[in-house]
Amino acid sequence: MSVKDCGHHHDERKKLVRRLVMAAALLITLLALVIFLVWAILHPTKPRFVLQDVTVYNFTAANGPPYILTSTIQVTLSSKNPNDRIGIYYQKLDVYVTYRTQQITVATLLPSSYQGHHDVTVWSPFLSGYSVPISPYLQQVLSQDLNVGSMLVTVRIAGKVKWKVGSWVSGKYHLDVNCPAYLRFGNPTGGIPVGPALKLQLLQSCHVETALGS
């Protein structure tokens, strides 16, 4: 075989490789375009969360240093999928309570679940924090709120969701839910436990954010 023939076959192989690469790129582009069009037509809507009630079993703050807070709270949360054609997979949902931006309970993992079109899911986890250190400033503000008999805490959910359209399932999206809860206790004094138990019906809508994540 001549050198010229070898060069000819080499050029043919290069052309074949280029065609295969171009075909693969075109296929990926078309697939991405189809997914985008389906996504745009279906117009997915974020799930809607509602904080239905809060039951306070214990809420005790130390009057002197070291300043610590112990709390046991049960919350009832509901989530509705408002989409007509899109299902939602909930994965690794952690729920906890914050007071003045400080986390005061340990994060509790909610069970993973799938939510069909217009389905409603309800969770009722217990959220507890034992001897959680707080700053002197936060203890002072907390004592003032308890003396007034009203305080604002936030029930937060952080996790991941996936969207399902037919047999197609999306990648993971970050889910961040914030549910403000105004607790009214009457007139407790000096960081004494509230209740033995106090159930508050709230039916408070929550703020929901989703963002594409890894």
Automatic annotation (TrEMBL):
Q: Which UniProt keyword terms apply here? A: Membrane, Transmembrane, Transmembrane helix
Instruction: Give the location in the cell.
Output: Membrane
Q: How does it sit in the membrane?
A: Single-pass membrane protein
Please give an example of a GO cellular component term from this record. Answer: plasma membrane
Keyword hit for rRNA-binding? no
Q: Which InterPro entries match?
A: LEA_2, NDR1-like
Transmembrane stretches, start-end:
20-42
Top-rank lineage group of the source organism? Eukaryota
Name a biological process GO annotation. defense response to other organism
Domain Late embryogenesis abundant protein LEA-2 subgroup spans what residues?
A: 76-179
Against Pfam families, the record matches this protein to: LEA_2 (PF03168)
Q: Which PANTHER family match?
A: LATE EMBRYOGENESIS ABUNDANT (LEA) HYDROXYPROLINE-RICH GLYCOPROTEIN FAMILY, OS05G0367900 PROTEIN
Instruction: List the protein's name.
Output: Late embryogenesis abundant protein
Origin species, per record, is Trema orientale
